[in-house]
Design goal:
The complex is a heterodimer.
Chain A (H helix, E strand, L loop, with lengths): L1 H6 L5 H21 L2 H34 L7 H5 L5 H4 L2 H32 L1 H7 L8 H27 L3 H7 L22
Helix pairs in contact in A: 2-3, 6-8
Chain B lengths: L15 H9 L5 E2 H11 L8 H14 L2 E4 L14 E4 L1 H23 L8
Antiparallel strand pairs in B: 1-3, 2-3
Helix pairs in contact in B: 1-2
The chains are: A mainly alpha, B mainly alpha.
Chain lengths: ~200, ~120
C-alpha cells in the first residue's frame, strides 16, 4: 500500500487530498484478490497505467482552470498578458529553457530507472542472453555502454523536441482548441483584455 | 440551465465514462466503488471503470454541476467513513437526456446507412 500511496503522488496535491483516501481501498481490494506473482505484476502494471495518464489529465485540467481564471501560474496565460497580441515577443526566453529542461529531465528520470532495471535484468538472464545473442556477454562493456548511450541520446532528443515544440505553441490557439472561444480577463491587469472569438 | 448558466447541449458529446457514471446514479445515490460495480453490472462486465478514471471524472462532474456530493450518510454500521456519496443533479439528468437524444439520432443515421444489423 505504501508504494501505491507513493504512486498517488503523481496526482496533484489537491486531487490526492480529495480522493486519495478513497482510492487506496480500491487498490487494497484488488491486491487481496491478486494471487501469484503474475497477477500481482499485472495489477501493478494496471495501476501504473491507470494513475499515470489520469494524473497527467488532472494536471492538464488544473492548468486549463488557471488559464480560464487568468492565473499567471498557467504557462499559456503569459501569452494573454501580451495585450498587443504578439505573444512571442512577450514570452520570456528563460521560460522556454525551463520547459526544455523540464521535458528532458522527466525523460531522463524514466530512462535512468530503465537503465538500472534493464542492466539488472540483463545480468539476471545472462546465461539465456549468452545462448541467444552469440558473441555478446553480459560483461561486454562496449555493448552495454553503447546501449546506455543510445538510450540517453534518444531520451534527450525525444524530450527536447516535444518540449521545444510545446514552448512554441501559440497560447491563444491552444486556448481556442480547448474551447475557450472568448476569454475575458478578470482581476488586476486583465480588466480591459478580451480575445475575439474565432471566425 | 447549469449553476454556471451553460446549457446541457454545450457539454455534448459526453465522455463515455461520464455518461456511464450519470446512468449509474440515475436510480439513487452511490459511493465511488458502488458506481464502478453498477457500471460493470449494467454492461455485463464490458466496462470496468478504474479508480483514476472514476475520480477524475467525478471531479469534473462536480465542477460542471452534473453531480453533487451528498452529506447524508447511511447508518454507521453500514458506512465506511472514507466513502463519499454522489447524487445526480437536475442539470446532470438534463445532460444525460440530451446525450441520449444525440446517441439516438446517431443510431438512426447508422441504421439508415445499413450499419445496424437487422433482427432475425
Amino acid at each position: 500500500m505504501r508504494v501505491f500511496r507513493l504512486l498517488l503522488h503523481l496526482y496533484s496535491k489537491s486531487f490526492r487530498g480529495e480522493y486519495g483516501r478513497e482510492m487506496c481501498p480500491f487498490f487494497a481490494r484488488e491486491r487481496m484478490d491478486a494471487r501469484g506473482p503474475l497477477s500481482i505484476a499485472a495489477l501493478w502494471l494496471h495501476a501504473s497505467a491507470d494513475v499515470a495518464p489520469n494524473a497527467a489529465r488532472v494536471h492538464a485540467d488544473i492548468l486549463r482552470r488557471r488559464a480560464g481564471r487568468g492565473d499567471p501560474r498557467a504557462p499559456c496565460v503569459r501569452g494573454l498578458h501580451a495585450r498587443a497580441g504578439d505573444w512571442r515577443a512577450a514570452r520570456p526566453r528563460r521560460a522556454d529553457a525551463h520547459h526544455r529542461r523540464h521535458g528532458v529531465r522527466q525523460g531522463l528520470v524514466l530512462t535512468t530507472a530503465g537503465i538500472v532495471l534493464g542492466a539488472a535484468a540483463a545480468w539476471g538472464v545472462r546465461t539465456v542472453a549468452r545462448a541467444v545473442a552469440g558473441g555478446v556477454s553480459p560483461s561486454d562493456v562496449a555493448t552495454f555502454s553503447a546501449a546506455v548511450l543510445l538510450a540517453l541520446v534518444m531520451t534527450v532528443i525525444g524530450g527536447l523536441l516535444p518540449a521545444w515544440r510545446a514552448a512554441r505553441v501559440d497560447p491563444m490557439s491552444a486556448l481556442r482548441m480547448d474551447g475557450y472561444a472568448v476569454v475575458r480577463g478578470r482581476g488586476p491587469g486583465h480588466a480591459s483584455f478580451s480575445v475575439p472569438a474565432p471566425a | 440551465m447549469s449553476p454556471r448558466g451553460s446549457s446541457p447541449e454545450s457539454l455534448l458529446p459526453l465522455p463515455a465514462a461520464t455518461f456511464h457514471i450519470l446512468l449509474a446514479l440515475a436510480d439513487g445515490d452511490r459511493h465511488g466503488y458502488a458506481i464502478i460495480q453498477e457500471v460493470a453490472a449494467r454492461t455485463s462486465g464490458a466496462v470496468r471503470l478504474s479508480a483514476g478514471t472514476l475520480y477524475r471524472s467525478v471531479q469534473r462532474m462536480l465542477e460542471q454541476g452534473l453531480v453533487e456530493e451528498v452529506r447524508q450518510r447511511p447508518a454507521p454500521e453500514l458506512d465506511d467513513e472514507r466513502r463519499r456519496y454522489y447524487r445526480l443533479t437536475e442539470f446532470g439528468a438534463a445532460v444525460a437526456r440530451a446525450e441520449t437524444q444525440r446517441l439516438a439520432e446517431l443510431l438512426k443515421l447508422a441504421r439508415v446507412s445499413g450499419f445496424v444489423p437487422r433482427r432475425a
